[in-house]
Amino acid sequence: LAALLLIPFGAAASEGASGTQGATFLNIPVGAGPAALGSAYTPLATDAYAPAWNPGGLAFVSSPELATQYLSYLESMNSEYVGFAYPLKEGRGLGVSAQYLGSGDIVGTQAGGAPTGSYSSYYGAYSLAYGQTLTDLWSVGLTGKWINAAIDNVSANAYAGDFGSLYRFRPDLTFGATLQNLGTKLNFLSEGDSLPLAFHLAAAYVPARRWLASVEGVLPQSGPASARFGGQWQPSEVVSLRVGYRTDNLKDLSPIAGFSTGLGITFWKQELAYAWVPYGDLGDTQYITLVIR
């Protein structure tokens, strides 16, 4: 588990150490489609993923949507997500979501290495989001979050907000921006860790029918700036093929660390999606999500 701390957006059971960021599980991509696109999803989140990616996108949700996710994460960790988006009148929308990461059983040891029994940890984030148009092309939104975590019998809480915006410059070009995880520290006992605050600026372009490209820059409060890239091709109305790359994965994990790919199958306007995101020696992550419209 200690190796997981090397991943900027990984989550390990020992994240509560002083001087580190807390609740970095919030940076684990939500949704098979967004993950397959290299997490370059800020300008595309006009769906049930908007509460996690960009609340400004809720203003452009056209019908009620429910998204559910199962993620087989690294080691024995597993993650789930459920999000719901509901359009209101006059370019407004509401969204709620819940995100969970569990460690499974962890073997505890004393300083000398003697076992002390097993324990577990979890991280959860519960969000309420709102988006509204300011013009026909421009929207803004706000997400409020309650973050709850526990390591064995010690728990912690934090509160945060996301601010997001979408601007549909042209029918084929959309810009998006978010400021994520602005809030209180996550406090375990007397130790407090800052949340993973970051600013995102992104664009999505549709160069031709059934083609999509997206690019996103991320400027975190802690750590270097990074870039994300995604592409999608729909060979038919039913199938979407996706690929992505992000530069904030550690390259010494694997030559393909940062790469992602996946597909979506649409039937009766519902989508079943899969994504594969490898981490070299740490293993692969597998996403399965269902979006019900």
Quick tags:
293 residues; 2 helices
Label the structural class. Answer: mainly beta
Give the strand order, joined by hyphens, for the main sheet: 1-2-3-6-7-8-9-12-13-14-15-16-17-18
What would the average pLDDT be, to the nearest integer? 87
The fraction of residues in strands falls at over 45%
How many DSSP helices?
Answer: 2
Fraction in helix: under 10%
Tertiary shape: globular
* Total number of strands: 18
Sheet with the most strands? 14 strands, antiparallel, barrel
Element-level helix/strand string: HHEEEEEEEEEEEEEEEEEE
Low-confidence stretches: 1-19
Based on CA atoms alone, the radius of gyration comes out at 19 Å
What is the CA–CA distance across the termini?
Answer: 38 Å
Structural commentary:
- There is one protein chain.
- The protein has 293 residues and is mainly beta.
- It has a 14-stranded antiparallel beta barrel.
- The radius of gyration is 19 Å and the shape is globular.
- The N terminus is likely disordered.
Set down the secondary structure blueprint.
Layout: H1 32-36, H2 50-53, E1 65-72, E2 78-88, E3 92-102, E4 106-109, E5 115-119, E6 121-133, E7 138-151, E8 154-170, E9 173-183, E10 186-188, E11 191-193, E12 198-205, E13 211-220, E14 226-233, E15 239-246, E16 259-267, E17 270-278, E18 284-292
Antiparallel strand pairs: 1-2, 1-18, 2-3, 3-6, 4-5, 6-7, 7-8, 8-9, 9-12, 10-11, 12-13, 13-14, 14-15, 15-16, 16-17, 17-18
